[in-house]
Amino acid sequence: MPTCPLCASPHSRHFHHDSRRDYYRCENCRLAFVPPVQRLSPEQERAVYDQHQNRPDDLGYRHFLSRLFEPLKSRLAPDAHGLDFGAGPGPTLSLMFEEAGHPMAIYDPFYAPDTSVLERRYDFITATEVVEHLFAPGHELERLVALLPEGGWLGLMTKRMTSEEAFARWHYILDPTHVCFFSEASFEWLAKRLGMSVEFPGADVALMQKR
């Protein structure tokens, strides 16, 4: 069985197959994931992302991002500095926070690949519709949390897996770039592992605070 990309446990089991891929679930952290041999290449990934039409002047997109923006903003101190990790081809959440008085840096491996921003410290870090794309979410999220001070926030936005029964009908698995599927139990495991608290202010939002 493939090793879990979140907790590195070898204890996973196959629970679903469709015409394109297989899906496993970790018995330890409850993450569902696609095995490495069935992931897209970086070139194939980029081709999918290039089709995204997200723009800062799209009010519908801003409304979508507000599901993370509003609850996180209400928890930040004035002038808190942030990083938007996985900002995509049309950075928008970072602009929303800057408009609210929070200076921002951005990082994206395809569209803003300046790794020097990953060597700084931040009061908060956001990742909207990102973690489901990560090949090594355990490593990447641990690296991000290391950039936060005590009391710092990690704001994540991704649709959560609710049950294995509903998984086969879930539209979220149709995107070929989605390879990791978190449940509440996965986030609770992660928070404990990283020394953080976690709350769920929305169906697809997780806010984690460093103790």
Explained architecture:
With 211 residues, this protein is α/β, with parallel strands linked by helices. It has a single domain (12-210), classed as Rossmann fold. The protein has helices at 42-49, 59-73, 93-99, 137-145, 164-167, 184-194, and strands spanning 12-17, 22-26, 32-33, 82-85, 104-107, 124-128, 153-157, 180-181, 196-202, 205-210. A six-stranded mixed sheet has the order 5-4-6-7-10-9, sandwiched between helices. A hairpin with a 5-residue loop joins β2 and β3 (32-33). The radius of gyration is 17 Å and the shape is globular. It starts with 11 loop residues before the first strand and ends with a strand.
Write the layout of secondary structure elements.
Elements: E1 12-17, E2 22-26, E3 32-33, H1 42-49, H2 59-73, E4 82-85, H3 93-99, E5 104-107, E6 124-128, H4 137-145, E7 153-157, H5 164-167, E8 180-181, H6 184-194, E9 196-202, E10 205-210
Parallel strand pairs: 4-5, 4-6, 6-7
Antiparallel strand pairs: 1-2, 2-3, 3-8, 7-10, 9-10
Work out the helix count: 6
Order of helices and strands: EEEHHEHEEHEHEHEE
Main β-sheet description? 6 strands, mixed
CATH classification, class level: Alpha Beta
- Total number of domains: 1
What is the level-2 CATH architecture name? 3-Layer(aba) Sandwich
